Amino acid sequence: MYSIEYSILGCKSLLIPRSLKDARENINDATPQHQFLGSHLSDIRKELGAWRGVLENLEDVSSLFDAMAGCGFSARVFEQVFPGVPIRLNDLDPACSHILTANFPESDVCSKDVRQLEFDGSDLVFIDFNSMTMRKWGFWGETILKAAEASRILVITDSACYGFHMGNLKAYGVESPHDYYRLYNERIPGKNVSMVADFGNAALVVLEDVSARSPVFLVSSEPIPIHYGPRGIL
Ligand SMILES: C[S@@+](CC[C@H](N)C(=O)[O-])C[C@H]1O[C@@H](n2cnc3c(N)ncnc32)[C@H](O)[C@@H]1O
Predict the structure, then answer these.
(1) Distance of CA 184 from the midpoint of ligand 1 (Å)
(2) Whose CA is nearest to atom 19 of ligand 1?
């Protein structure tokens, strides 16, 4: 195991599994976080910055269920923004769930397929999909609906904006990113998109109980630096 430390949010370290690879990985739905950590570090920094931006705009979160928690980077950021708030963690990959237990000894950790999870009793559910877009609704939609129903706030990672930045809106049959994110309002009863934090290759979509307010589009979150421990990892 190696130790990673990052500075902006404090000095708590995070362990990652030894099976880290340094070649650029093709990401698919089930790629474990530690397998592409080496080559996608700048993406992870940007995503963590966006996640922090989202969290800083939420009030009174009383628990987190991080359902695709990887090695726990996102959970560490949560812990810094909401200290002392209970965290439940899950990752299908046993190497990730093992390392999550080491990184978060106080938390409940499980290793299930996200499609089999019960989210009941979670105030905030975060599902950090590797490559979810509305075109995969047939595969992920049921899980998203279940998580939305069981939680007050649901945050999911949606990769469609990667295509939007290349002018590829037509693939989703929409005229603008706003139209695309509004599809969530149509498909998820009782929840509306309240924030979208676009960090380039994906966006965090925040769904909250129906409210009159229009979505806030957060675009300028600062990436979070990640510094390596004394042994280094790359
Ligand atoms: C983008 S990564 C999450 C990174 C995480 N936010 C972090 O801070 O390290 C997505 C994770 O989902 C896990 N995963 C993939 N398919 C899954 C499934 N069906 N159920 C649960 N976890 C899954 C992968 O092992 C991977 O670690």
Answers:
(1) 22
(2) 113
Distance between CA atoms of residues 119 and 48, nearest Å? 23
73-81 helix and 94-103 helix, angle to the nearest 10 degrees: 30
Distances (CA, A) of 233 to 1, 20, 30, 31, 130: 10, 8, 23, 19, 22
**Per-domain residue ranges for the chain?**
41-221
Q: What is the CATH number of domain 41-221?
A: 3.40.50.150
Average of per-residue pLDDT across 115-127: 95
Over residues 135-182, the pLDDT tens digits come to 999 999 999 999 999 999 999 999 999 999 998 888 899 999 999 999
d(Cα 92, Cα 94) in Å, to the nearest integer?
A: 6
> Rounded to the nearest whole angstrom, what is the distance from the C-alpha of residue 122 to the centroid of ligand 1?
18
Q: Inform me whether the pLDDT recorded for 50 exceeds 80.
A: yes
pLDDT at 41: 74
Atom of ligand 1 nearest to the CA of 91: 22
The count of C-alpha atoms lying within 13 angstroms of the C-alpha of 201, restricted to the half-sphere facing its C-beta, is: 13
Distance CA 222, CA 234 (A): 23
